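Holo prediction — adenosine-5'-diphosphate.
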Amino acid sequence: MGGSYRHKLNVLALIFVILFTNFSACASSETGKITKNDFVLNTVATITLYDSNNEALIDECFDLCRHYESLFSKTDVNSEIYKLNHRETSEVSIETAKLITEGLYYSKLSDGAFDITITPLTSLWNFASESPSVPSAEEIGSAREKVDYTVVTVSGNTVTFSNDYTAIDLGAIAKGYIADKVKELLVSRGIKKAIINLGGNVMCIGGKTATEGFKIGIQYPFEESSIASVTVRDLSVVTSGIYERYFEKDGTLYHHILNPKTGYPYDNNLLSVTIIGENSCTCDALSTTCYALSKDAGTALIEDLDGYYAIFITDDYKLWYTDGTETALNIET
Ligand code: ADP
Ligand code: MG
């Protein structure tokens, strides 16, 4: 089921992007606009340039995604994260060290509800596999004991663990970080109007016109349509949802955001959390963190941050906005 689900996910991501960014499927020299899809970071990524038809530049962006994937993947035996997790090295690039530091920040902030060392549990559940299944209580118990961000220390580009078994998973923040880097690359090449979509992790450069923003759809959980839209300029829109990777067994839905304390998926009546703000890595970290913290604590966290907004969707399909979100983002439902 995992395989067909993944396929469905990719098709969904594609349809969703097409619906809400309204682009043509190829370059158009009249408008100077070009859009291109590729499978990177285990998902469908789409980049649309509205003020250029430079296809080679988009390819460069996808290559950049692949470069970061080769550093951050926990399954690629040549990646820095794999080598760290298997204690084959303690030296990593400064970028990997920075991203781990970022992950540790949110782990501490959430008192471990978000935990960058979730790997023993994510590897055990393996939602990306063809046919994921529910692990035994014993397996979950022993994996859970290995999750502990406090054993990780970063100093410069040296990362050390105070035990042999704790391992890092950057899955909750990597796409956001990479979206920021793709934006930097495009801006450095003079692009002023673009949408970068890394499997639903959206980053906008500029807006639709000099005054209007881009209208970005928020996915209707489990559906191929949108439940609402936000209008943004130069902002990132990132969603963590239980419908992104999951399987069902005996009437129970098991999704990919795991509670390090229990070892099972969080059970908190949330279908999704969308974060909107300037930095995509921050949005990505906050979306997973707010999901883990649940609606009330997540709302309090966002309302303490300037320039960041959140939309929570509860399992009755009701939308909940943090203070200021509705006025700042011109929400349409
Ligand atoms: P997606 O990757 O689908 O965009 P998220 O940003 O919410 O969604 O990240 C989910 C990923 O985060 C999981 O696939 C897993 O790699 C990792 N993860 C799962 N549970 C936790 C947790 N409690 N803390 C930190 N990372 C987690
Ligand atoms: Mg995230």
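READOUT: DSSP finds ten helices and 14 strands in the chain.
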